[in-house]
């Protein structure tokens, strides 16, 4: 293997950044272009501090050692600082081809780009359109160039068939608009990921004839690799130790930038393995993610799963979105705080008793209504910001 220089691609909000990312991809896949890293420029959704963290983790001034590396992609940083992930050309091909095999007709689709191209979800739309030689349509909001507005979907002149990747908050906004819901129902496939999709939201979408596919995956697995709980062709999921999710297959990335010996990665080729920080179970042959392994806190000596609390909170009528965090407390060990976005405040008082009924008294959360949950540029919930807010309170 020969060391190769890494090209830093500064991604501006809007069409300019999209073109820069796509040009770098085409040069790397079809020509003699260098491996590259996508670094977001500050925008309405990207702070200068976050952009600096991404630049630091991808290390653009250092060469890469694997000559199959396509890009160094930054993780979202939803639970800490972002990390650079070495994604190879083989990873990209495996991820796209597995989705084509799993979903009939997906290969022929043009793509609507609704997520930032510096996230693996948004970049994946560019990869799919490029490998299939189909059209790519972008919303004005991409990269924080403008606020996400469901009305912008209606203004797109989209080739059919088409597909789109979105996050749960975008799906919730679309379902509030009958016109936007009708537009989304025309899509061959609607991939929703980056965060857990509440079951009630998925049911509403499918009842509206939307061809919804919930996805599970991360930057380390080149995006979604489990669709509606079913591993894609070539992907294996193993539950090890206490139910921790291990993912195996050709989509698993080559490792972390600057930490290729990380114990999170092992194996080679189709037996490449990534050990996640998620706890999962099998239900009727489908993978269900119960939460992160480290999202268990002790309250008065009782272990409580924050993921389980969040699942119950989301099930209450009137809750549009929710996030549950735990913060240290000198008296009881931890405080559990549920931040909720309510469609109907009438259900607010019922949330804590419902959690107690299902999970016990130690799991009772402090319930805080908010207008919106803070999001990272990737569309994931910024749990660090919520923990800081809960701690301050």
What would you say about this model in short?
This protein has 11 helices and 22 strands. It is α/β, with parallel strands linked by helices and 393 residues long.
Any overview of this molecule?
The chain has eleven helices and 22 strands. The chain is α/β, with parallel strands linked by helices and 393 residues long. It has two domains: 7-289, Rossmann fold (3-Layer(aba) Sandwich); 295-392, GMP Synthetase, Chain A, domain 3 (2-Layer Sandwich), CATH 3.30.300.30. It has a seven-stranded mixed beta sheet with strand order 6-5-7-8-9-10-11, sandwiched between helices. Strands 1-2-3-4-14 form a five-stranded mixed beta sheet, sandwiched between helices. Strands 12, 13, 15, 16 and 17 form a five-stranded antiparallel beta sheet that branches. Helix 4 links the parallel strand 5 (110-113) and strand 6 (136-138). Helix 1 packs across helix 4 (120-132) and helix 9 crosses helix 10. The longest helix is centred in the first third of the chain and has 16 residues, at 15-30. It starts with 6 loop residues before the first strand and ends with a helix. The model has no long low-confidence stretch (mean pLDDT 90).
Please, what is the average pLDDT? 90
User: What's the story with the biggest beta sheet?
Assistant: 7 strands, mixed
Number of helices: 11
Total number of β-strand segments? 22
Tell me the distance between the termini.
53 Å
Strand order within the widest sheet?
6-5-7-8-9-10-11
Given the helix and strand composition, which structural class is it? alpha/beta
CATH structural class of the largest domain: Alpha Beta
Molecular shape = globular
Please indicate the percent range of residues in DSSP E strands (runs of 2 or more): 25-35%
Number of domains: 2
CATH architecture of the largest domain: 3-Layer(aba) Sandwich
The percentage helix is: 25-40%
Q: What's the name of the CATH homologous superfamily of the largest domain?
A: ANL, N-terminal domain
């Amino acid at each position: 293997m020969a060391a190769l220089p890494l090209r830093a691609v500064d991604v501006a909000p809007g069409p300019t950044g999209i073109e820069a990312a796509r040009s770098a991809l085409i040069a790397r896949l079809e020509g003699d272009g260098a491996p590259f890293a996508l670094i977001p420029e500050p925008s309405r959704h990207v702070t200068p501090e976050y952009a600096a963290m991404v630049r630091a983790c991808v290390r653009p001034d250092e060469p890469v050692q694997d000559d199959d590396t396509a890009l160094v992609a930054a993780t979202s940083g939803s639970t800490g600082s972002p990390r650079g992930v070495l994604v190879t050309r083989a990873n990209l091909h495996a991820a796209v081809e597995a989705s084509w095999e799993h979903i009939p007709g997906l290969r022929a689709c043009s793509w609507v780009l609704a997520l930032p191209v510096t996230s693996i979800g948004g970049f994946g739309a560019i990869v799919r359109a490029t490998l299939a030689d189909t059209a790519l349509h972008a919303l004005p909001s991409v990269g924080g160039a403008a606020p996400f507005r469901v009305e912008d979907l209606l203004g797109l002149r989209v080739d059919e068939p088409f597909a789109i990747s979105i996050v749960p908050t975008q799906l919730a906004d679309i379902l509030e608009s009958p016109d936007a819901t009708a537009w989304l129902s025309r899509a061959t496939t609607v991939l929703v990921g980056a965060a857990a999709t509440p079951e009630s939201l998925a049911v509403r979408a499918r009842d509206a004839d939307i061809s919804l596919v919930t996805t599970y995956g991360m930057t380390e697995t080149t995006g979604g690799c489990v669709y509606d709980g079913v591993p894609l062709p070539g992907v294996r999921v193993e539950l090890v130790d206490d139910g921790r999710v291990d993912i195996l297959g050709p989509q698993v990335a080559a490792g972390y930038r600057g930490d290729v010996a990380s114990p999170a990665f092992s194996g080679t080729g189709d037996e490449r393995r990534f050990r996640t920080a998620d706890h999962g179970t099998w239900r009727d042959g489908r993978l269900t993610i119960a939460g992160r392994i480290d999202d268990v806190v002790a309250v008065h000596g009782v272990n409580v799963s924050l993921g389980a609390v969040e699942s119950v909170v989301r099930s209450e009528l009137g809750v549009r979105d929710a996030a549950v965090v735990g913060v240290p407390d000198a008296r009881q060990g931890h405080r559990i705080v549920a931040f909720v976005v309510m469609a109907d405040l009438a259900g607010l008082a019922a949330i804590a008793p419902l959690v107690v009924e299902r999970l016990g008294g130690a799991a009772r959360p402090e319930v805080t209504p908010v207008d919106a949950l803070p999001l990272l540029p990737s569309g994931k919930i910024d749990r660090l910001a919520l923990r800081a807010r809960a701690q301050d309170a």
